[in-house]
């Protein structure tokens, strides 16, 4: 019997897709990674079907590539050695919103638009990355180590517990959600702790594994109350290094909630409504660098909280950085503070072209971890590589996201390109590989080794780590069926 017939017996004939249009759309994503080969696409409705499919794939020695949502950006869901696309987007149930513990239990196919609308309606919000695509999976973004715009330490790990099906076909649940009667009446555990009750640390193996160890089916994430009032401040500078020490001092005092730093290209891309004229106008008017600080207050004495945080901010800036401007709005943007604080509460609107794709059609992101004081050292290296490939430095977006009160930061460079121009795609692919190599030499820490070029750099450098990862892969996925060819596998 052909494997497609076996798959149809598991999920139904209507959920096994192999038409040329479907195969073409699933064989690529929004990145510059080359397309892969797909045997068929299988749509699942629950974890039991996922488990059956993975066990079947083990028996037939067929590759399986999990795909969680309608849009992917980094090539990690492109089949590099053929096989089955395991489409989990239909597993999109919000199983529970637990207001007492401020958490939500949701399947992997739940999107940012679906989830944030649901929690906002109840007076809460989720911790978010910067303006995520509305069709992206909530659970998968946290698995892929996206960083929240909230830099407070308490919310640095939004994903608490999860369920996955290892490549062997075995079910596994992490953290306190692993108790057999989790969430049943009378059970003392509530799934809020990623640690225990047994050996801890398995969740760290799953984060960033890009479907090479198994398929995650649900997760438990943090919620937060909505602020009663907010106040947005903008710290503007002409050089990135001038913004760093102010950010350190502000974050050490735990002032503000959302905190991020953008260059004028990225900020104009976010704020422009009319393309291309308004984008060019905003980019020219905006300062070279803008730090955005949103100060929020909950129900108890909110005016006092806003007042003392603004006072502390003014004291820091006037005493230490009298030449740096702190603004309540931005040039060319009416009510910028209100607009941005509202934007940061939600994913990107579904009725607008995604902000990273509005400029040229697509975007390749180079993302890594570093510390705030080292940000300035990476920009010349990126500009030098860009010049070699005739990419204008002024067209490069840059986004700095402080992490855990400034302990570290995520640094992201955006290379915008036309996905319909094959020559330009090839050029950006080479640029991306060269840029990754350049920043790696300067100490970039790639906790998200996206793309074959970056993965090759990382795993060749850390051969002992790669060997250990392969040993664990043997246990989790003995027949190497889960997304083979990705990472170091």
**Contiguous helical run count:** 15
Q: Strand order, biggest sheet?
A: 15-12-14-13-17-18-16
Q: pLDDT below 50 for ≥5 consecutive residues: which ranges? A: none
Count the strands? 18
Characterize the overall form. Answer: globular
CATH architecture of the largest domain: 2-Layer Sandwich
Class computed from helices, strands and strand pairing = alpha+beta
Distance between the termini: 29 Å
The biggest sheet, with number of strands, parallel, antiparallel or mixed sense and barrel status, is:
7 strands, antiparallel
Which CATH top level class of the largest domain fits?
Answer: Alpha Beta
Q: Helix share of residues? A: 25-40%
Strand content: 15-25%
Rg of Cα set:
23 Å
Number of domains: 4
Description:
This protein is globular. A hairpin with a 4-residue loop joins strand 5 and strand 6. The protein has 489 residues and is an alpha+beta fold. It is built from 15 helices and 18 strands. The chain folds into 4 domains: 85 residues, Uridine Diphospho-n-acetylenolpyruvylglucosamine Reductase, domain 2; 132 residues, Uridine Diphospho-n-acetylenolpyruvylglucosamine Reductase, domain 3, CATH 3.30.465; 115 residues, Alpha-Beta Plaits; 86 residues, GMP Synthetase, Chain A, domain 3, CATH 3.30.300.330. The strands form 4 sheets. It has a 7-stranded antiparallel beta sheet, with helices on both faces. Strands 5-6-10-8-9 form a 5-stranded antiparallel beta sheet. A 4-stranded mixed beta sheet has the order 1-2-4-3, with helices on both faces. Helix 12 packs antiparallel against helix 13.
